Amino acid sequence: MSLRSRLSIAVAAGALAVTALATPAVAGDDPGDPRDDWGQNQGQGQTQNQGQNQGQGQSQDHNPRLARGVVTANSLALRSAPNRGGQIIRWADRGEVVSIFCRTNGQSVQGNRQWYLLTDGTWAWGSARYIRTIGTAPRWC
């Protein structure tokens, strides 16, 4: 991993730490939320949330500092780092609407080096190659 990639990750981690201290959680801290139930009802929770999130665009509870995106791959691995070697945190299905905190350059995926840091219940990186943004482009990390 290059020094530039490490620096980008360190800056993003620092920004996350400051943001976590300064703002309340964005998503996923409701104990009854099916998004938190990845071990038991993996398919159920995702399908239910897709139906709830599709077509909403910018809902009333959407944080204006976050960008929105839609997963275009059949199943997208969301990872612990902006590269294909990062540990898989969870999977996102086609059509799932995701909240994007920021973007950075990482490992190229089919010619696209951008990765998005997603905030949907967990903090995980998804390749921008498979996420179509809705509205404004995400800010840089």
Helices and strands in order:
Elements: H1 3-22, H2 42-53, E1 67-71, E2 75-79, E3 88-93, E4 97-109, E5 112-118, E6 124-127, E7 131-134
Antiparallel strand pairs: 1-4, 1-7, 2-3, 4-5, 5-6
CATH top level is Mainly Beta
Give the radius of gyration: 14 Å
Q: Spans of 5+ residues with little confidence (pLDDT < 50)?
A: 17-60
Number of strands: 7
Q: Give me the CATH fold name.
A: SH3 type barrels
Main sheet characteristics: 5 strands, antiparallel
CATH-defined superfamily: SH3 Domains
Q: What's the rounded overall pLDDT mean?
A: 73
Distance between the termini: 18 Å
The percent range for strand residues is 25-35%
Assign an overall shape: globular
**What is the CATH architecture term?**
Roll
Give the helix proportion (percent range). Answer: 10-25%
Structural class: alpha+beta
Describe this entry's structure for a reader.
By secondary structure, this protein is α+β, with helices and mostly antiparallel strands. It has a single domain, classed as SH3 Domains (SH3 type barrels). It is about 25% helix and about 30% strand. The protein has two helices and seven strands, in the order H-H-E-E-E-E-E-E-E. Strands 6-5-4-1-7 form a five-stranded antiparallel β-sheet. The radius of gyration is 14 Å and the shape is globular.
